[in-house]
Structure formats: C-alpha cells, structure tokens
Design a protein that fits this description.
This protein is an alpha/beta fold. It has 4 domains: 214 residues, ATP-grasp fold, A domain (Dna Ligase, domain 1), CATH 3.30.1490; 97 residues, D-amino Acid Aminotransferase, Chain A, domain 1 (2-Layer Sandwich), CATH 3.30.470.20; 129 residues, Glucose Oxidase, domain 1; 260 residues, TIM Barrel (Alpha-Beta Barrel), CATH 3.20.20. Helices cover 44% and strands 18% of the residues. It has 34 helices and 34 strands. The strands form 7 sheets. An 8-stranded mixed sheet has the order 15-25-24-17-18-19-20-16, with helices on one face. It has an 8-stranded parallel β-barrel with strand order 27-28-29-30-31-32-33-34, surrounded by 4 helices. Strand 33, helix 33 and strand 34 form a beta-alpha-beta unit. Helix 20 runs parallel beside helix 22 and helix 33 crosses helix 34. The protein is elongated, with a radius of gyration of 34 Å. The chain starts with a strand and ends with a helix.
Length: 861
C-alpha cells in the first residue's frame, strides 16, 4: 500500500488504499480514498478518524501531522465532514483554511487582487460563523463591494473585516494557519457533539455514540489567473433519469455562479447566451463529462460529482449516487443495464418495489408548502385536491359538473360506493389500512386517508373541525396525501405519473424472472379491464357483492331481503341472474382464458340496507312501506359481531338459493362465451369463510347440481374448479380434510389476520400507531404479513393440504398480496400466486422477482 499511515495520531494521508473503512473515517473519506487509489484526479487529501475528532472538543494536537508543513508554507486547506452515513449530516465545510495576510499578499500580487480580497473576506466571514457562532451578515456588504469594484485597492475592506471580527468575536483574527486549523477542527467536533445535532441525527437513525470523521483536502487555487471554482454535477435528470447535465458551478475567478451548459439566456439580453462552464472552459467541461462516464463504470451507478476546477483541470472533491426521483431510479437502472454497466438482475434488485407507488399515482409537486390540518393512516397512495363533501350524493353531483370532490366520512359503507367512485380522494375518521374505505380506494386507485382521529365530523351540518380548530365546510378545498396520511388546507399542483417505456420494460424484466403468479382483485368488468392493462396472470378475487350495489340491482336486493317467502325471493333472484350473467360474460371475455376466481356472496345481508335516516326514508318511499317497517327489518338483521355472524358460507347454507343463482349465472356466462369465441373457459368458484369440511360438501353438492342442469340445458360440458377461502384459523388447521373436496384454496389474509390477532381491521387504527411507535408491533399486521403468527398458520395449512393433494393450487387474495415483504414470505412458504389491487400489481411483480433473485444470492453465498 503506497500511503503514509498516521493513524496513531488519527490522521491518514490518502494514497492507494482502496478500503479505508467508513466506520472509522466516514463515508466521504472512504469514497475519496477509493477513487484516488483508482487513479481519479483528487486533491491531496487526509482523513481524520472519528476517535481523533472526538478528542478535538478538548484539545487539538497537530504536531505530528504531515499537512502542517504544507499549511505553514502557504498551502490552503478545506475541511469537510465525513460521518459514517451521509444522511447524518455534520458541520458545514470550511474552505481555504490558512488564508492570512501573507497568502493574501501573494495572491494579490498575481494581478488578481479582487479575487484574492473576495476569498480572504469570505474566509474571515466563514471563520467567524464556524468558530465563534457569529451570524456573519455584517460581512455581506463588504463582499459585495469587492465584487462591484474589482479594480479598487481592497486593503481597507480587509481591514474593515478585521475590525468586524474583533468586535464580534472579542479577539483579533488569527494569522497563524496552524491556529486557524486547530480552531476549525475544535469547532466542528463541538458542533457534532452538541445536543441539537445529536437529536437530529438520532432521528435519522444514527446511534447515540455515532462519531464524525473529517476530510482535509488541499485547496486548488492555482495561480488564480485563470478559471477556478467549485461545483456539483450529474449527467442524468433527477426527475426523469434522461441523459442531461444537471447541477451548478460557482466561479471564484468571476465571482458568480455559472450554468454548466449554455442553454440558459441572459434575462437582460434574450438573444445572448449566458456564459456557461461549457463555453468558458470547454476543456474542463469535457474532462468533467469524461469523469462522469468513468465513474459510472467504476461505481456501477450514475454519480453526482462534487468537483473543483483549476484552469482546465478537474479534481473530484466527493462523489455520491446521483439524485433521482422514483421514476428516474427506474430509468437509470434500465439504462445502466443497456450500457452493460449492470446486469438485468442487478437492475431489478436496486429498485424498492414500494417506491413504484410514487411512480404510478399523482404526487404533490415539489416546493409546495401547505398548512397541515390533520393526519391519519395513509391507506391508498397518491395525492388529490378537491372540495370537501360529506355525502355520496354530493360527490356524484360535483363529478357531474366536472369538479373534484374529497369524500369525508366517519366511515364508509357499501351505500357510499357510487360516491367513492365519483371522488378524487377519501378521508374517514375511523378505520384502519384494511377498512372498507381503504380496500375500495386501492381498487379504484384513488388516494385515501383513514383513521383521522383528530377530526370532528358533523355530516348533517356538512363540516368537520380538525384538532387545531380549523373548520372545513362543504365546498372548501383540501388536499390529501394517501401515502403519508396528511390532510392539508388548500389546493396544490399535482405531479402526474408518467410511466414511460423504461417502466414497462423494467416490469417485463420482472415478469421474466418471477416464479410467483400475480393476479388482481377485481369487482366489476371495469376493474377487470384495468387489471388486464397491468398484464396480470389472472383474477384472484371477484367480490360478487360489489356487482350488486348498482342502483337497479340494489333495488332488487332490497326486495329480496324484505320478501317473506321462498317463492317471492326466487323471483328477485331470477331478476338478478341475467344482470350478473352479463357481468361474468364481460369478465370472461376480457380475460381471454386466463384464470378467474369468483368468490360467492360474502357480506351479511344487512350491509345492503341503508344506514342514514335520509336513505331509510327514500327506501320506504320506493318500496311503498313505512319507515318503521324498514327500521324493524334493519334492527332484525343487526348482529353484535357481524364479521363473525351470518355471512360467507353460512349465508349460502341458510339461504342456498343465493349461491344457486350465482353459480347458474357463472355457468351460463361460460356457455355464452365459449359459444361466441370457441375458447375454453374454466372459472374458479370460491366458497368464503368455511370452517368445516361439511360446509364445503354441502355447497359443492348444490353447485354440482346447478352445473349438471346448465349442461343439460345448453348441451355443453362445463369445466370449473371449486375452492375455499381460508380466513379462519380452524379452516387452516383443517386444511388436509377440506383439501379432499376442493381443487384450490386461497388465503384471505385480511380476515385471517383479524382472527389470529383478535384485532378489528376497522378499529385497530385507533391504537396501531402507538403500538408501532412503542415497538410492541414492528409494523401494522394488516399492512405486512405477520411471519411469526399468521404466516406460521398458513404454512401449517399448506403442508397439511398438500400432504393430501400434492398439486393443490394455493393462492393469497388479501391486501397483503401487494406488499413487498408479504410477497417474499408467500414465495418462501410455497404459495402459487398472490392477488392484489390492480394498481399494486407492478409492486407485487417486482417483489416476486426480487424474491427469486435474493434467494439465488443466498444459495450462492
């Protein structure tokens, strides 16, 4: 190793060592050590260890340092922070340490007196701020005077600077370069150890005892007769990832900031290009571009270069990965692969799947500040601005007028479906990340904030009040961020998603790697079309109840619920059958032979009845019966715990005609599509909420009978598979027995998590944030699959079921299907496919690809 090690005094001269440890000297020192040893041009540099810097707060002993002789001979130095993690920050850099009267005279005698004076005055100002805590504002007028009068003798200005310093600091400005360096090092050490700094970096994940390394570099001033200055540049757009030059350059020679390339124009002379680095110093600009290209290959990434220029020479002061948005992150990965810098697999591993949320949904534009009025749980990503409304009808009315609505409700119910479809965003006071509002919003792809407990909503008065006293009435404009959960006052400009070719190619790479199937949850033919646009492997969950909330169908459902005899109920079911059949025809036609899993009716019947007084009165009028009769029926259907009551398969057994009608609608739709297209259609019919094998046998027998009837009527042989939704712990523990009578099973992890934890997904938002903050739960189990409880029960069920049927198809159709960690777990425990909201399909695809690649890497190591 060709470097001089002064580690016994905490100072190491950087030379050819590649692996200077960041945990001892910090990230910046480690990076400079690597590129300097690799032949990249850098200033002479020295790294100070964290142990040495920690001691500087008491005293600084520089006697054995090799840089002291350079400093005493008139060489200027710059001191920069080098923490182990860059995001932990650190004290501001100090440039041109060693500047004194002698150095100033030498520089001034080079016929560039104004440049030398400006450097000296600025150093005195920065030294006062750094070492003495001065605000430094009083020096600004002096610096400005030097810039405006470059040909003057600036001796008096420097003398004025000395006076200001002594008045503010209480001592004369130090002329000894070694003394200057000692004071700078001591001030940076003490700044790092201050209480405020410690709190800030601990908030960013730094340990309490995190140390600060420092990097000392020789200042590159040359003779200051030609161009010199510092800047930062990257050769990709931070927004799109496209090839372009982005950054800034501060010319000390000219005393102003210059653009990097000559695209900007002087506002005072629109036809005259503004002087740029590319024009003023083309050799340096070409050298900078060449360095960026070399660093791309060396670091296997696009880098942001902090650089200095001395004439036509470029020196690297620091390198970090280029700034990039989520969209740019994908484009950069794709382009690096095409350039042969990284492999396809490396490109896929580099992108966080959850970051695709930001790419696919509108976001609040940068540099916009609005007042936050409330906060809840971010349940569906994206951002939206619109008028606050407090009813589904108001949302629908606004949409009809071409205006955007934000639906605000204590909680949503199936009654609100039309209003939710008409809204640009949804806010609820109650609920968690898998409440009704959250699930529907994700399916619709609209932003949603739930569990905003600080709101006091008065729907009858059409207003809400936030915890800070802000009153929002219907028609007032608010903004919500469905990722962070923030609710803001006023409107913003939204940055619309632009996927682009790189995004689609990237997802195709994920498709070529993953082994886990990715399906979508879809409730209506429109949802199925959306899912198809995301190139899903099939539909993993059709929630048939959502087909019944259209106004004409809901009316028939009301009639069905209020009928008192089986004959009259059958009449209502006969009216619903062709409507559902038409939906299934459209779904099967859209999916073109891909799997479609249809869940039979799941919710209790009372969910189809209105809750508000206005809706109850409207229903009584439509059905020509009294309000009291409506109320009596609603009360009669109410349950103490409806999530565990008359729903799912229990409904199909006690009112079997409902499942019979749905099965017939499915089979008749199959016959129609097969007759039209001559293609085979094999639907998957799923029974919800089973707990015993006997339930499965009962429903299976009736469905088989319906299939036989349709086959006889249509003269066609039907192909279909029958499965169950495993949502209860007992069904999971009985999976081996249940497997004897089914062709597939799918875990409904929303309800399974509820029952394993004993939590309500609608109410847990009231305490979940406290549980996570206190470390009781590592994360919300409704967001990411619980590996220690829920996943263990799933694994038991999978092993038990496949011991009976080795080839049994097993899926997951809860909201966990679109969560990265959950997808990785599903890959590991042997799930065949996951199903999620259409807008989370790309996330699931990338996560599934990464599961393969990460597992492969582990095997190799």
């Amino acid at each position: 190793m060709m470097y001089r090690n002064f580690d016994h005094v905490g100072c190491m001269e950087l030379g050819t060592v590649f692996d200077l440890p960041a945990e001892i000297y910090g990230a910046q020192a480690s990076a400079i050590s690597d590129i300097r040893a690799s032949g990249f041009p850098t200033p002479n540099s020295w790294a100070l260890s964290m142990d040495a810097v920690r001691n500087f707060s008491k005293s600084v002993d520089t006697n054995q340092w090799p840089i002291i002789s350079l400093l005493q001979s008139g060489t200027l130095l710059s001191v920069r922070s080098s923490p182990e993690k860059r995001k932990w920050g650190g004290p501001s850099e100090m440039l041109n340490v060693g500047m004194n009267n002698n150095v100033f005279k030498t520089l001034r005698d080079s016929n560039t007196g104004s440049v030398a004076a400006r450097l000296y005055c600025t150093f005195i100002q920065d030294f006062a701020i750094q070492t003495a805590g001065s605000d430094g504002d009083s020096y600004n007028a002096l610096v400005k005077k030097i810039v405006e009068h470059p040909n003057d003798d600036h001796t008096s200005v420097i003398e004025h600077c000395f006076c200001l310093f002594e008045n503010e600091v209480g001592i004369p400005f130090p002329q000894d370069p070694v003394d200057q360096l000692g004071q700078v090092l001591q001030s940076m050490s003490r700044a790092w150890e201050s209480t405020t700094s410690r709190i800030l970096r601990e908030a960013l994940g730094a340990p309490q005892d995190a140390g600060l390394g420092l990097l000392i570099q020789e200042a590159m001033l040359g003779s200051i007769k030609e161009e010199f200055g510092v800047g930062q540049a990257q050769f990709v757009s931070p927004v799109t990832g496209a090839t372009t030059v982005h950054g800034s350059y501060q010319s000390h020679f000219r005393g102003k900031e210059m653009p990097l390339i000559g695209l900007d124009t002087n506002p005072n002379a629109a036809d005259t290009p503004e002087l740029s680095l590319e024009i003023a110093c083309p050799d340096a600009f070409r050298a900078l571009a060449s360095l960026a290209d070399r660093l791309r290959k060396h670091c296997h990434d696009e880098m942001r270069l902090e650089f200095s220029i001395d004439g036509s020479n470029v020196f690297l002061l620091d390198i970090i990965p280029a700034q990039r948005s989520r969209r740019a992150e994908i484009s950069i990965a794709v382009q690096l692969k095409k350039l042969g810098v990284i492999s396809r697999d490396e490109a896929l591993v580099r992108v966080d799947p959850e970051s695709l949320n930001e790419v696919m949904h509108p976001q609040i534009g940068s540099r916009q500040e609005l007042r936050q009025i409330a906060e809840g749980i971010g349940a569906s990503p994206g951002a939206a601005s619109g008028m606050a409304v407090f009813s589904a009808q108001s949302a629908m009315a606004l949409k009809a007028r071409g205006q955007s609505a934000i639906l605000v409700s204590v909680e949503t119910s199936p009654d609100d479906i039309h209003g939710m479809h008409s809204s640009g965003g949804i806010v609820t006071q109650r609920g968690g990340s898998n409440s009704h509002a959250a699930v529907v919003a994700r399916a619709l792809g609209v932003p949603c904030v739930v569990g905003a407990l600080g709101l006091s909503i008065e729907s009858d008065k059409k207003k809400f009040t936030s915890s800070d006293g802000t009153e929002v009435a219907e028609g007032d404009v608010i903004t919500l961020d469905g990722a962070s959960g923030k609710i803001l006052w006023g409107a913003v400009d939204l940055a619309q998603p632009e996927l682009g070719e790189d995004f689609h190619e990237f997802i195709q790479w994920a498709d070529s790697v993953r082994t886990l199937g990715i399906r979508a949850n879809a409730d209506t033919p429109h949802d199925v079309e959306l899912a198809r646009a995301f190139s899903v492997d099939g539909i993993g969950l059709v929630r048939t109840e959502h087909m019944l909330f259209e106004s004409d169908r809901l009316k028939i459902m009301h009639e069905l619920i209020f009928e008192s005899t089986d004959i009259k109920r059958q009449k209502s079911l006969d009216a619903l059958l062709p409507m559902l059949r038409d939906d299934f025809v459209e779904i099967f036609s859209t999916m073109k032979g891909l799997p479609v899993c249809i869940r039979l009716l799941d919710p209790p019947l009372h969910e189809f009845l209105p809750k508000s007084n206005d809706h109850i009165e409207a229903l009584a009028s439509a059905m020509k019966i009294s309000v009291s009769e409506i109320t009596e029926k609603i009360e009669g259907l109410q349950e103490f715990n409806p999530m565990l009551g008359m729903r799912g398969v229990r409904l199909g057994i006690t009112v079997p005609a409902i499942y019979d009608m749905q099965a017939r609608a499915i089979f008749e739709a199959v016959c129609e599509v097969e007759q039209r297209t001559a293609a085979d259609v094999a639907p998957e019919i799923m029974i919800p909420l089973v707990v015993t094998n006997q339930e499965v046998e009962f429903v299976k027998t009736r469905i088989a009978a319906i299939a036989a009837l349709v086959e006889a009527e249509r003269g066609r042989k039907l192909m279909y598979s029958l499965g169950v939704m495993v949502e209860t712990p007992r069904a999971a523990l009985q999976a081996g027995k249940i497997a004897q009578n089914i062709d597939f099973m799918s875990f409904g992890t929303n309800d399974l998590t509820q029952m394993v934890y004993g939590l309500s997904r609608d109410d847990s938002g009231r305490f979940m944030r406290d549980y996570i903050r206190l470390g009781i739960f590592p994360e919300d189990p409704f967001d990411s699959l619980d590996i220690d409880g829920v996943a263990k029960i799933m694994t038991l069920a999978i092993d038990d079921a496949r011991s009976v049927k080795p080839g049994l198809s097993i899926g997951l159709c809860g909201e966990h299907g679109g969560d990265t960690k959950s997808v990785w777990i599903c890959h590991d425990i042997g799930i065949d496919y996951v199903s999620c909201s259409p807008f989370r399909v790309p996330i699931a695809k990338l996560a599934a690809a990464q599961a393969v690649l990460i597992k492969t890497r582990k095997r190799k190591t």
